[in-house]
């Protein structure tokens, strides 16, 4: 297992980003798991009932992410945070995306809690990762793309030592480090904002790490 670390630039914390990251080693990903599917379907029914007759956009957790985007000059119409996208897909369209077991696990936790979650293959990361403000010269290859696309300076993102964006805001993850069936070593992001307590972010971090290791094996340790 190679050395790997995570750090956060003070300027990003000053914006109000609250972050916990973890490393999960020796995992065994798969397409699906019957026990998790049973659990997932029960949780989705609870979420549907929880938001029945309510407007999910009024959730202060989602509003906190929109505030962060405003601070760095990004349109919330063009840059919809991942948990808000999950809520829209599920509550407005009745769809919960199936990718693979690990992705489905953290997407379910994100849908339920409103926090932004993501995972990346450490074997595909160049060196270590820093959550910092972008300079605009970083390499950014979004999921599903094969060529880099431009990125604005002054945003915040998770960037490795090779100047490659791993995750842009809470909006877009990338093709090179995406979670596949072959992943063994995971960098996991659990992100909140000024509308989420430190205790809440920690609680969600524990929940998702325990769930991944329950269904996929492995061991986890928090990086910050």
Explain this structure.
With 224 residues, the chain is of the alpha+beta class. The protein has helices at 10-15, 34-50, 60-71, 82-93, 101-113, 198-216, and strands at 6-8, 18-25, 116-121, 129-133, 156-160, 165-168, 172-173, 185-192, 219-222. The strands form two sheets. Strands 1-4-5-6-7 form a five-stranded mixed beta sheet. A four-stranded antiparallel beta sheet has the order 3-8-2-9. The longest helix is centred in the C-terminal third of the chain and has 19 residues, at 198-216. The mean pLDDT is 97.
In short:
The chain has 224 residues and is α+β, with helices and mostly antiparallel strands. It contains 6 helices and 9 strands; from the N terminus they run βαβααααββββββαβ. The protein has helices spanning 10-15, 34-50, 60-71, 82-93, 101-113, 198-216, and strands spanning 6-8, 18-25, 116-121, 129-133, 156-160, 165-168, 172-173, 185-192, 219-222.
Choose one word for the global shape: globular
* Straight-line N-to-C gap: 19 Å
Q: Could you list the spans in which at least 5 consecutive residues all have pLDDT below 50?
A: none
Percentage of residues in DSSP E strands: 15-25%
Mean pLDDT: 97
Structural class: alpha+beta
Strand order of the largest sheet: 1-4-5-6-7
Considering DSSP H and I runs of 4 or more, what fraction of the residues is helical? 25-40%
| SS elements, strand count | 9
What is the C-alpha radius of gyration, as a whole number of Å? 17 Å
The main pleated sheet reads as:
5 strands, mixed
H and E string: EHEHHHHEEEEEEHE
Number of helices: 6
